[in-house]
Amino acid sequence: MKGIITVLGKDRVGIIAKVCTYLSEQGINILDISQSIVQGYFNMLMIADFTASGERFIQISEELEKLGGEIGVKIKLQHEDIFNTMHKV
Amino acid sequence: MLSKYEIFETNKMIEESNLDVRTITMGISLMDCADGSLEKFNGKIYEKITRSAERLVKTGDEIARQFGVPIVNKRISVTPVSIAAAGCEAESFLSVAKTLDKAAKTVGVNFIGGYSALVHKGSTRGDVTLVRGIPEALSETDRVCSSVNLASSRAGINMNAVRKMGEIIKDMAERTKEQGSIACAKFVVFCNAVEDNPFMAGAFHGVGEREAVINVGVSGPGVVKRALESARGADFETLCEIIKRTAFKITRVGQLVAQEAARRLGVPFGIIDLSLAPTPAIGDSIAEIFQEMGLEHAGAPGTTAALAILNDNVKKGGIMASSYVGGLSGAFIPVSEDRGMIEAAQKGALTLEKLEALTCVCSVGLDMVAIPGDTPAETISGIIADEMAIGMVNNKTTAVRIIPAAGKNVGDTVEFGGLLGSAPVMPVNRFACGDFIRRGGRIPPPVHSFKN
């Protein structure tokens, strides 16, 4: 199962590093990253493999949100199915 | 593969346009709780509800977290109490209402519906006991919702019951005078009530339903409004297409949440209710959709046509997105719960008569409408009779949830708080209908052919 991580906020040093470090500690493999900065605002989209996370998905989601709070950005983890069901028939 | 655009579009709907799942409602049958002893009946229903819905709130919260979409309400509907408790030797079902309230608080749901009776053709002993006790039940509980089905296209309108409703609505308004007559906000009367409605105050678990079921109500007027911003000045074909596409996307989220909730709770999925339900939040309003379509305010000439377009296209888009569509499935136009409607009523753009006309083309009727506290009971019955007639003749569900705000007059505002919002007191036609209402009896059903 894949999870979609979106990060939004004011750009600063080390956002990707923090998120990636946390995910690697959790044994989550990142499949795709795209990132852009528009007028100083950081916008990142990450697709990661959560097959190994099992029941910990909710916990990881809460911890990512907390991590975002620490570095001043908004981090959201969502199960890929919300996007698949909405956009694919 | 998902595109970046799709991911951001979904999250924009959630974060900027208030996309949410309005309610996961678990329907629970109380049929097997029947008992001659009221005390034993109460014990059984408390046990069954708290056992069946034990994990409802927690599961709803987990699903919301997993998909990153808010699930606003977790609720319960039960078999109409007048049927389930019919076998009890009792003069009053107040203790049943209190048991339901206690069960709702134990499992953490914000409303429990089903303190209800179906009397469209006539009343049983259980119906009479229940209806008589509604004002007491709703003023002495916090989370219990009540409904009465007064009419159907097949049976006609039970005018004895319609007359009684005016009296009990006045009674419960008076009893909860200090809280803005809030008991009236927890009570609705229907014509052609549906058995799988997940929305309050009218939710109950129909007698044709299974043991337990998960019904989900979606929402998203803000999303529709935002989508229409891209089509200012476009023709009606374009307008309809945008609404359909948006409704499809909104409903898919509801379907996903419903299936996931059903799977996790081990309870079968029932239906998705496609109703667009507004909230008092900015940007979550049906009236704002009308404005986006080109009307100065809800209630302006053209509003009925605009609502017909909205309602029909939400259904067209939503039906393909879900395996089972049911409930009320149409736009809701509650005045107090919609900022745009409140404003339109305050400016005089929206009147009770226009709201009545709107009910010909949408799912419910006069909803969360405050009227002066000194409105006679018979006038309220007259208003109800008109709505019942619209539903009966047009083979559709209509409803009335009206608040004769005790001690208030036109120009005043009644505050309910939370999702129930605040209602401006609207003027009522002052001419009398007492002699008509006092006739009593039943209006026979209309002819079902010769449709011209």
Q: Keywords for this structure?
A:
heterodimer, A: 89 residues, alpha+beta, Alpha-Beta Plaits, four-stranded antiparallel beta sheet, 3 helices, globular, B: 452 residues, alpha/beta, Anaerobic Ribonucleotide-triphosphate Reductase Large Chain, twelve-stranded mixed beta sheet, two-stranded antiparallel sheet, 16 helices
Largest interface: A-B, 21 and 19 residues
CATH class of chain A: Alpha Beta
Computed over alpha carbons, the radius of gyration of chain A is 13 Å
Largest sheet of chain A: 4 strands, antiparallel
Give the CATH H-level superfamily of chain A. ACT domain
CATH level-3 fold name of chain A? Alpha-Beta Plaits
Percent of sequence in beta strands of chain B? 15-25%
What best-fitting shape of chain A do the alpha-carbon axes yield?
Answer: globular
From the coordinates shown, what is the CATH architecture of the largest domain in chain B? Alpha-Beta Barrel
Helix content of chain B: 40-55%
Number of helices of chain A: 3
On the 0 to 100 scale, the average pLDDT of chain B is: 94
Low-confidence stretches of chain A: none
- Termini of chain A, distance in Å? 19 Å
Mean pLDDT of chain A: 91
Which overall shape of chain B is indicated by the principal axes computed on the Cα atoms?
globular
